[in-house]
Amino acid sequence: MPGMLVYCCQDLIFATKIRSTAEALGAPSRPARDADALRNRLEQVDDGRANGPVTAVFVDLELGPVGLELIRQAKAHDDALAVVAFGSHVAAELLQQAQQHGADFVMPRSMFSSTLPALIERYADADEQAE
After folding, report:
1. By C-alpha distance, which of 3, 76, 14 is closest to 68?
2. Which of 21, 45, 60, 98 is disulfide-compatible with 40, CB 3.0–4.6 A?
3. What does the pLDDT look like over 90-124, one tens digit per residue?
4. What are 58-88's pLDDT values in tens digits?
C-alpha cells in the first residue's frame, strides 16, 4: 500500500492541485489545516476515512508561523518523515526559517508545482521502499 501524503495549505487552488495530482497518480493524500489535524494524520486517528502511515508532509509557507510550527511538529513526531516546504520565491527569510525548523526540502512555489508529480511518486512509494 502506498504511503499517505499530508498537505497543509489554506490556498484552495493549491490544495486541489495537490489532491488531484495525488489522486491521478493513485497516491492517498489528506489535508491537515492545523496542528490538531496534523497530529491526527500522523497518529493515524480514524476519522471515518482510511489513514495509512504518513510518508511525507507538504507545507505551504503562506501559512506563516503556523506553517513553521507544522514543520516542527511533523519532525518532532518522526525525524525521518519527509517534510517539503514551499513558498513565494521573494520570501527568502521564510524559506530559510522553514529549513531551520527542520524541512528536508524547501523550494519556491513554482518549483514545487513543476516537480509535484515526481514528489508525489517519490514519497507515495517511500513506505513500500522501506519494507
Report:
1. 76
2. 45
3. 888 989 999 999 999 999 999 999 999 999 999 98
4. 999 999 899 999 999 999 999 999 999 999 9
Q: Is the pTM of this model over 0.85?
A: yes
Task: Give the chain's domains with CATH numbers.
Answer: 4-130 (3.40.50.2300)
The b-or-e profile of 18-46 (16+ CB within 10 A means b, else e) is beebbeebebbbbebeeeebbebbbeeee
The C-alpha cell 524541512 sits at 103
SS (H, E, C) 54-120: EEEEEEEHHHCHHHHHHHHHHHHHCCCCEEEEEECCCCHHHHHHHHHCCCCEEEEHHHHHHHHHHHH
Three-state secondary-structure class, residue 40: helix
